[in-house]
Request: fold
Amino acid sequence: MSFFKKIFGKQEAPQPTPEVTSSPPIETPVENTAEITQEAKPVDADKTMPGGTAPIATSPLSPEQLAEEIMTISPSQMLVGVGHSVGMQREHNEDAIFTLSTCMVTDSRQIPFGLFIVADGMGGHQHGEIASGITVRALASTILRKALAPLVSIEGNMPEESLQEILQSAISDAHSIILKEAVGGGTTLTAALIFGEQLMIAHIGDSRAYAVYRDGTLRAITRDHSLVRRLEELGQITSAEAAIHPQRNVLYRALGQGEPADPDISSFPLPKGGYLLLCSDGLWGLVPEKELSSIIRESPSLEIACQKMVAYANDHGGPDNISAVLVRIPR
Reply:
């Protein structure tokens, strides 16, 4: 690990280009005296509409689209879906997931809170599974104690430490426990912490976080700490060569690997009206980004979107464990 650290060093996580939205066009209201609950009568295909025009075929709105059209959701709520699979070629699942979405709502304030974690263990079944499990439990317990507990206390306090300090402390705790309880094991970590309007991403290894914007654009907001990614950044190999490189799974940064944990912890703008996707390399390594975006936009629910993404990876060989956490961010 120290050898790779000397060679590669640490680089800042890339910042996504802020989403640019435009105001929707003003629509002219149309009077409609029909009852909302009245079922539309089928149009005879052999008949024409008044004026001699042919009938216009339309597709029904999905339940999710219909809800957006007829109601304003208040307070804002984060919804989450999860996918998890051992894959097609492994006997055990060394990935671990944690998700929590809640909201503190009073007469004076609304504070959404979300914690979403994906950890991909390594070092063999026993050590990898232990390392990833330790990581999600240690992270969740520390963050809930330091960030959420003050908010739900009788006094309703804000956290005493910054979110970055809380994440760093939680990751250091997880790293120390892995060194004692899972000797020889390690794990990646990608975690998203949402507190009010703040989004913090903590990341080490090659699991990923993506921001998915309202127009369908999908952008990675983490940087892989892998050998092939570094070689690609240096221009020594192409992305196509990186995808089939024999050392594509070699990491130079991970939790539980002997040196002090050195995660990337950064703040990002929330992709309002869009999504956050956290996943292990068992998903992003097999499902192209264009396909990920298409599945997310076209699925009727977050749960189904996650199942479809996992199924796609398994249909294309599923050589590794697969994990996906998909969070819908309110507007």
Observations:
- The longest strand covers residues 110-122.
- The chain has one domain: 75-328.
